[in-house]
Amino acid sequence: MAGQRGGSRDGAGRKPLYDEPTKVVRVPESRVIEIKNYLAESTKTKFNDIASITLVNPSSVMSIPLASEKVAAGFPSPAQDYIDKTLDMNEHLIKNEAATFIVKVASLSMRDAGIEIDDELIVDRSIEAKHEDIVIALIDNEFTVKRLMIESDDNRWLKAENPEYSDIHLQDGQEMLIWGVVTFVIKPFRKR
C-alpha cells in the first residue's frame, strides 16, 4: 500500500502545554531560564478549591412563574396548576449586587455538603460569617471553600465536608481571611 504512510493520528504529536495558542518569539539567551521559570509558575493552579471567581452583573430581569401551591414530592394534583405571581431570580438570589460573586468549585472537599466540582456558588462578601457558615477563605494566598467553625475568638478553623480531605487548623504565623459567605449553590440535576 504505497502512499499510506504518515498523516495525522489521534493522540500523536506534541501535547499542548497551555489552554490557548502559543507563539514563537526570540528572547535573549541570558533570560531563557527566567522566562521558563515564569511560564512554569504561571501554569500551576493558583487556587486550592476554587476554579474561578466572577462578579455578578444582574443587568436583566428574569421573571419565572411561581406556583401558588407548595408541591409535594409525589405527583401534583391537577388543581395545583395555578400561577399567582412571578419571581425575579436576581432579587431571589442576590441581596447585595455590588458584593456578590459567582465562584466555581474545583475540588470535592465539600462533597458531603452537596457541593461538587464545577458547581457554582453564590457568594456574598457583605455578610458577616458565623459559626458553621460555608465560606470562601483565603489562606496563604490560596482560596478554599470550607465550613467555618468558631470555638472562641482566637480558635477558628475550617472543616472539610469530605473525609478524604483534611480540616484546616491555622499554624503559627498563618492568617485566615474570610473572603465571603456562600448563600446559594447552583447545580444542574439534569445533564444537557
Task: Please give the share of residues in helix.
Answer: under 10%
As laid out across the biggest beta sheet, the strand order is 1-4-5-9-6-7-8
Gyration radius, to the nearest Å? 24 Å
| Pattern of helices and strands | HEEEHEEEEEE
Identify the CATH architecture of the domain at 50-61 and 95-186.
Ribbon
CATH superfamily of the domain at 50-61 and 95-186: Umud Fragment, subunit A
Sketch the major β-sheet: 7 strands, antiparallel
Number of helices: 2
Strand content: 25-35%
Terminal Cα span: 44 Å
Structural class: mainly beta
Shape: extended
What fold name stands as the CATH topology of the domain at 50-61 and 95-186?
Answer: Umud Fragment, subunit A
Low-confidence stretches: none
What is the overall pLDDT average?
79
The total beta strand count reads 9
What is the C-level CATH assignment of the domain at 50-61 and 95-186? Mainly Beta
InterPro entries: LexA-like (IPR039418), LexA/Signal_pep-like_sf (IPR036286), LexA_repressor (IPR050077), Peptidase_S24_LexA (IPR006197), Peptidase_S24_S26A/B/C (IPR015927)
Biased composition (Basic and acidic residues): 7-21
Pfam family, one: Peptidase_S24
Region (Disordered): 1-21
Compose a concise summary of this entry.
Belongs to the peptidase S24 family. The chain has 192 residues and is mainly beta.
Give a verbal description of the structure:
- Residues 1-21 are annotated as: Disordered.
- Belongs to the peptidase S24 family.
- The chain is mostly beta strands and 192 residues long.
- It has a domain at 50-61 and 95-186: Ribbon (Umud Fragment, subunit A).
- The chain contains two helices and nine strands.
- The strands form two sheets. A seven-stranded antiparallel beta sheet has the order 1-4-5-9-6-7-8, with no helix packed on it. Strands 2-3 form a two-stranded antiparallel ribbon.
- A hairpin with a 2-residue loop joins strand 6 and strand 7 (142-152).
- The longest helix is centred in the first third of the chain and has 12 residues, at 32-43.
- The chain is extended and about 65 Å long.
